[in-house]
Amino acid sequence: MNSEALDNLVKAKVLKAEPPDQAEFDGLLKLGTNRLKDAHNQDNSPESRFDLAYNAAHALSLAAMRWHGYRPDRQRFIVFQALQHTLNLTPGQWRVLDKAHNSRNLAEYEGNSEVDEQLLAEVLKIAEIVRGKVTALGPIRKSRK
Question: Can you give the pTM of this predicted structure?
Answer without folding.
Answer: 0.93
